[in-house]
Amino acid sequence: MQEVYLLLGSNRGDRDYNLMTACRKISGSIGEIVRISSMYETEPWGFKDDTLFYNLALMVKTKLSPHDLLAEIHRMESEAGRIRDNKASAGDSCACTERSYTSRILDVDILIYGQLILFTDELMIPHPRMHTRRFVLIPLNEIAEGLVHPVFKKPVAELLMACNDSCSVHLVNKK
Questions:
Q1: pLDDT per position as a tens digit, 101-141
Q2: Share of the chain above pLDDT 90, in %
Q3: pTM
Q4: Annotated catalytic, 24?
């Protein structure tokens, strides 16, 4: 079993319902949810939209390989109604340098997969931009402040303190 950290986000439809439904599906098809953060309302990152995101972080124990995990995440996102363009075909964990950010019903990103460092055209682990985004670091810090980033060799709490992102992140409900 591998410990995997995921970030879930939604800014379309019933955001709370979308995230809770995704958690149930993750429990059923990916693995046991060991920790779940509070839910946070956050500004869209990389694009403008009137509807803010709801985000939360999970720690999951899974038997899935990184690529099987990504395939299952894409299946779940598609079932929720997410449509990907070819620039974002492999999700935010993609090695693509050009990325189009849009509103979405469900977005699930692989942040960290054990201590694995994987950089391919389809998948980048750890998430290549997680250390630059407060909407990722705040919920992740809540459930894993001492977790050490496999590349930077710094705990999440230290990455959060050093993060220069100015986007707002507000607690919606405490878990």
A1: 667 899 999 999 999 999 999 999 999 999 999 999 999 99
A2: 73
A3: 0.89
A4: no
How far apart CA 78 and CA 73 sit, in angstroms, is 9
Specify the amino acid at residue 55: N
Q: Considering the candidates 12, 15, 109, 165, report the single residue annotated as catalytic.
A: 109
Is 107 catalytic? The answer is yes
Give which of 175, 173, 171, 169 is closest to 45, Cα–Cα: 169
Q: Which two tokens stand for residue 133?
A: 């985004």
- Give the DSSP per-residue string, 35-53: EEPPEEEE--SSS--SSPE
Is 133 among the residues known to form the active site?
Answer: no
49 is known as an active-site residue:
no
ω into 139 cis (within 30 of 0): no
CA distance to 134, 153, 156, per residue, from 160 (Å): 7, 13, 6
Query: Which listed residue (15, 82, 133, 134) is catalytic?
Result: 82
Q: What is the Cα gyration radius of the chain?
A: 15
Instruction: With a cut of 70, say whether residue 165 has pLDDT above it.
Output: yes
Spacing of C-alpha 6 from chain mean position? 4
Residue 164, amino acid:
N
Q: Is 44 in contact with 54 (CB distance < 8 Å)? A: no
